[in-house]
Specification:
It contains twelve helices and no strands. The protein has one domain. The chain is globular, with a radius of gyration of 19 Å. Helices cover 68% and strands 0% of the residues. The protein is an all-alpha fold.
C-alpha cells in the first residue's frame, strides 16, 4: 500500500512538473508578435475577393460561415496550413525580435518558432470557421482566450475530447453553435480535466523531444535544414487535424452537439479516474 502511495505521489508530481513546463512555454510563445492574429484584417485579406464589399461588415460581425460555402472555407483553410508551414520552415521569428521580448524568451528558438507558428495557424483556422477575436485586448490574452489556444493545441496534438470541447463551446463559442444550441454553456467541471490533460501531454512532448530540438541552433548551417524538415513533417498533419475538426462546425446540428457533449463527459470521467 505504501509503495502504491509513493508511486501515486511521484506520478502526480511528474504530472505537475509537465503541466508547469507547458504553461511556462505557452506564456512565452504568446509573447511572439506573430502569434497575435488580427481577426478583422485576416478575414478581409482572405475573403474580400470572394464577397461583395457590402458583405464585409457581416463577415466581420458573424464570421465567414454565414456567407460562404464549405468548399471555399476548406480551400482557404488548406492554403493557410500550407502558407504557415512554409513560413515556419523558412524564417526565424526569434532572430528578429526586439531586445526586450527576445530576453523574455528563455526557451530554445526553434521550439518558440514551432509553437508560435502552430498557434498562429490555429487562430487563423478558428477565425475561418466562426470563432470570435481572441485578442479583445491587443496586449494580452484573457484566461478564456488562453484556454481556447490550449484546446487548439490539444486537437493538433491528438488529445481525446479536445475537438468535441472546442465545437460544443466549453470556452469560446463559435457563432453557429449559438444558433444551434442557445444558452447551453458547459460547466467548468466538464472541461477543466481535459484542459489539464492538454497541458500534461504538451509538457510530455516538450520534455521528450521539443526542448531537445533547441540543440539545432548550435549548428547554424545544418540547423535551418533540420529544423525546417521537422517543422514541415510535424506541423502539416497538426494543422490538418485541427482543420478537419473545425470544419464540422459548418452546418453543426443539435445531434452533433449532443454527441460532442457525450464525448466530453466520457473523456472527463476517464481522466478523473486516472
Amino acid at each position: 500500500m505504501l509503495s502504491q502511495n509513493i508511486t501515486y505521489r511521484s506520478k502526480r508530481s511528474l504530472y505537475m512538473a509537465e503541466q508547469d513546463l507547458a504553461m511556462q512555454v505557452l506564456q512565452q510563445v504568446v509573447k511572439l508578435p506573430i502569434v497575435k492574429v488580427d481577426r478583422s484584417k485576416f478575414l478581409v485579406d482572405k475573403f474580400s475577393k470572394e464577397l461583395d464589399p457590402k458583405d464585409i461588415p457581416t463577415l466581420l460581425e458573424q464570421g465567414p460561415t454565414t456567407l460562404l460555402s464549405q468548399e471555399i472555407l476548406d480551400r482557404v483553410a488548406n492554403a493557410c496550413i500550407r502558407d504557415n508551414v512554409l513560413l515556419a520552415s523558412g524564417t526565424s521569428v526569434v532572430a528578429g525580435l526586439p531586445g526586450g521580448i527576445a530576453m523574455a524568451i528563455t526557451i530554445p528558438a526553434d521550439v518558440a518558432q514551432f509553437y508560435g507558428f502552430s498557434l498562429k495557424l490555429a487562430q487563423e483556422l478558428g477565425y475561418i470557421y466562426g470563432y470570435e477575436d481572441l485578442w479583445a485586448s491587443r496586449e494580452e490574452l484573457s484566461e478564456d482566450a488562453q484556454d481556447t489556444l490550449l484546446l487548439y493545441l490539444g486537437v493538433m496534438l491528438g488529445v481525446n475530447g479536445t475537438a468535441a470541447l472546442l465545437r460544443a463551446g466549453g470556452i469560446t463559442i463559435a457563432k453557429q453553435v449559438m444558433k444551434t444550441v442557445p444558452n447551453k454553456a458547459l460547466t467548468k467541471t466538464l472541461w477543466y480535466p481535459i484542459l489539464k490533460k492538454v497541458l500534461r501531454i504538451f509538457g510530455v512532448n516538450l520534455t521528450k523531444g521539443g526542448l531537445a530540438k533547441g540543440m539545432g541552433k548550435f549548428i547554424p548551417i545544418l540547423g535551418g535544414i533540420i529544423s525546417g524538415g521537422l517543422t514541415f513533417a510535424t506541423m502539416k498533419p497538426m494543422g490538418e487535424s485541427l482543420q478537419k475538426e473545425l470544419s464540422k462546425l459548418v452546418n453543426y446540428s443539435e445531434v452533433q452537439y449532443q454527441e460532442d457533449v457525450e464525448t466530453i463527459r466520457k473523456e472527463a470521467e476517464i481522466i478523473e479516474g486516472e
